[in-house]
Every structure is written in structure tokens, then in C-alpha cells.
Amino acid sequence: MRLSIAGLYVDVAVDAAVVEALPNLQPFVVPDSEYDSPICQVRTGQEVTGEDTPSTLSSHADEKTIQVWLKPDVCKLSLYNARSGQTYWLQTDRQWQQVLTDWTPSGVESFASLNDLIMIAFVYRSAFYQAVTIHASAVAVKDEGCAFVGPSGIGKSTHSRLWLQHVPGARLLNDDQPVLRLHPDGTVRLYGSPWSGKTACYCNEGVLLKALFFMEQALENQLTPLTGIETFQQLMKATSLMGRDTVTFRAISSTQASVSGAIPAYRFQNRPTEEAVALSHQAFIDIVL
Questions:
Q1: Once rounded to an integer, what is the mean pLDDT over residues 11-18?
Q2: Residue 13 and residue 1: Cα distance in Å, rounded?
Q3: What is the DSSP letter of 272?
Q4: Cβ–Cβ under 8 Å, residues 149 and 215
Q5: Which of 90, 157, 144, 95 is nearest to 123 (CA)?
Q6: FRET pair for 182, CA 20 to 30 Å: which of 130, 191, 232, 283?
Q7: DSSP structure string for 210-252
Q8: What is the mean pLDDT of residues 225-254?
Q9: Is residue 34 scored above 70 in pLDDT?
Q10: How many helices (H) and strands (E) does the chain have?
Q11: Which positions ≥6 away from 97 have C-beta within 8 Å?
């Protein structure tokens, strides 16, 4: 299976039944023979040994626990799903070009774990191609788009829905994990991805990124332009990172710094109202890149 995400290609060694089990991937599947070489290969069913030493990093969310072991030439990762009781292992070089995992199909939850492993592989491999995945809700109007950025529960999805209601021609691009990609010509594009949280929005398209809105709940609607440094700080908070992995961190932070200097960004204090949409939409219209 070859996936095209943000114009980058990832090969995953699975059969057609896996694609059917993961409908979020289907819009991103492309023929193997029609495109350039993949940036990453994910090989399933491999023999990957576990670790019995303390992990370098660990995180827990949504009944999943991820542990990471960083070594000079190798990164190992374990993914434990509390719902199924299953643990899968992943091993890769430090630039995430060749990814091996012991994953094999064994029920519905196993497919969810494969989806997570593919996402992790894409996030860190694409970093070397000036692409970063951020926690945001993204909307588009014609061939331009913007992202509402912030932690869970801050109102990103709500504001996107209000745009769909009140901005003619607005459409949802992604509701959880859109991709920003800096292209060689200096433009920054905003892409949909196969990972959109609880909203089934899996759009394989990209638009010109015109603005970033960093969301805050407030009693009054107000937009405050951010400096490049402030934008960089906020973007890093919204980006998937392995903080102790200097290899991927260097690639991600470099791209975020370039994006922060190129794209207008705002601190957006808002209430979930049509008036807030009018404010953000007018800023969007007024921007000339």
C-alpha cells in the first residue's frame, strides 16, 4: 500500500484487507507505479526485539501508552493499547526512513494500532521534508486555508463549524492533525491528513496557508497579531515532538521557524459566535501574501 500525504509518499507492507479496515487511509492510497520513490517504508510482521531497560521517553493518552528508546543509530518504540491489551514494537533508523514493526492483524483494535504506527512514522519521517503535523482544525476557501490551533477543548472544532455555517464556500480540511509543509519556492501549504480526531474528515488535498489563529476562550472577541518569535513558541506547543530526540527536533523546529516568519498569526480571544467568525474571516480576507 502506498499513501500520498501532503505530497509525500509512504509505503506500508500490508494487503488490501487492511486498507478496507482503515477507511481513513483510503483517500490517500495511490498506485505504486505512478509516483516518485517513497520517503519512508513501513514493514509489518517483522521480528523486533523488546527492551528491558528504562525508556528514554513515555506518554499516556486515550488508553494508549507509548514508550521510546533512543540509541545512537536506532530508535525503538512500544505502543500499548489498554483496550486490547496488545503491545506492538517498532524499530527505525534515527531518520525514520526504514521502519520495522512486529504488527500483524489480530482484531479491530490491532488495526487502530497500525493506524497509530503509520501516523508516528509519517510525523517523524516527513520532518526531514519540511513538513510538520500540528494539533489544529483547518478550513479552506477555494485554494486558500487557515488553521485554528490550540489544545483540546479550546474551541478549534467549534470555530471551524461556525466558518462552515457563515463563510460562503468554506469547507473542512481536517479537524485534528493537518500538515503544514514548507515548499522549495517558499510557499507554505496546509494539507489534510488521514488523522482527524473524532471527525471523519479525510481530505487528500492541500491549499495555500494564509493564517494561523491561536485560540483562547474569552468573554470578548479580539485578534492580536503575533511576532515571529511568539508564533514559533505557540506552534511548537502544538506540534508532535520527542523532545530528547535532537535529530527530529532539529528538523521540526527549523521548519516551524521558517513558517513563523512567513505566515501571519494571531492570538484569537473569542466566544463561539457569528461575530467571532466575522472577525477571523475579515483578517483572513485582508492578508496578502
A1: 90
A2: 6
A3: S
A4: yes
A5: 95
A6: 283
A7: EEEEEEEE-SS-EEEE--HHHHHHHHHHTB---TT-HHHHHHH
A8: 92
A9: no
A10: 6, 18
A11: 39, 40, 41, 125
